[in-house]
Amino acid sequence: MENKKLLVGTSKGLVIIQKVKEDWKIIDVHFRGLPVTVAYVDDRNNTWWVGLAHRHWGEKLQRSTNQGKSWEDIKSPKYPLNAKLGSGKPAVLKKIWCIHHAGFDQPNGIWLGTEPGGLFYSKDNGDSFELVENLWNHPSRKDENQWFGAGRDHPFIHSIVVDPRDSKHLFIAVSCAGVFETKDGGINWQPKNKGLIAAYLPNPDVEVGHDPHMMIACDASPDVIWQQNHCGVFKTENGGDEWQNVTDKNGLAAYGFSLAIDHENPDIAWTIPAVSDLERIAPDLSLCVCKTDDGGQTWVSKRNGLPQGNVFDIVFRHSFCNSKNLMAFGTTNGNVYVSEDYGDNWQVVSNNLARVETIKIT
Q: What's the average model confidence in pLDDT over 54-81?
């Protein structure tokens, strides 16, 4: 574990934490004072990507090919003039929510998920980006009851899943709209929300209008996809054709934002719960990580090393990650926790950061 690093994106900079001998320590801080909206490590080439929310200049994108020794300012994606919001006003980039490489057979391909609900693609490793207009102009988007903001003014794309067997096959998750799939690299898109619940709408079984909070596919079994949803925890075993509700009806694995899954065993997943949309605090004011190892049939809570009582912390959607036995999450109050045994035991490695927006292991 000594070479492993945590890239912790906070509201006041990118903090690098590494295990040195027996202790996890902060070894560097980049972009001091600037809000980091997304951090991503491209596992094809170990390029680091960071999205920054400048208060005066808007959303910016940074790229490093030498693990943060130097950074390159990348031109942010721009909505074309013909991209309009429902109000008729021109679409303007508000936030970069997620970054994902386009597959090992597309070495220079990069996908970006943004707010207000645009998916961008780069074929030249980020030197330029183009809006995927067939998704932007999807018929369902014309209905403001199907695409709408969830705690934000506009819908946003926060999760991208690329099928390792076929780089033209990908899924995206939109809050609010739901899951969409393309099998031809973005030319045609179909909603994939059968089995999901939109309890906040008059018709909870709508085709479009769902609020996935986070979505991840299993590397070893790509047809198994998990999502932490506004209305519970869901899983599909057939590539999104139908979702199963695996919410713990009598326990804590229900509402939340964050999610992690085992990439070798598709039955193993973890989530960090919050009370509800109205009470965005830890249940019983105590932090816990919920784990299932039977595909969501049963859940157990893991608390060893986590604070119990008077905890006003939750974990955002991109602030929980894992790499084999190493797991890490950061909280809204700037605390970072690490487990080196698949989440059974936890230790705090920092109590003094700003709000954690995103965390990655490299």
A: 95
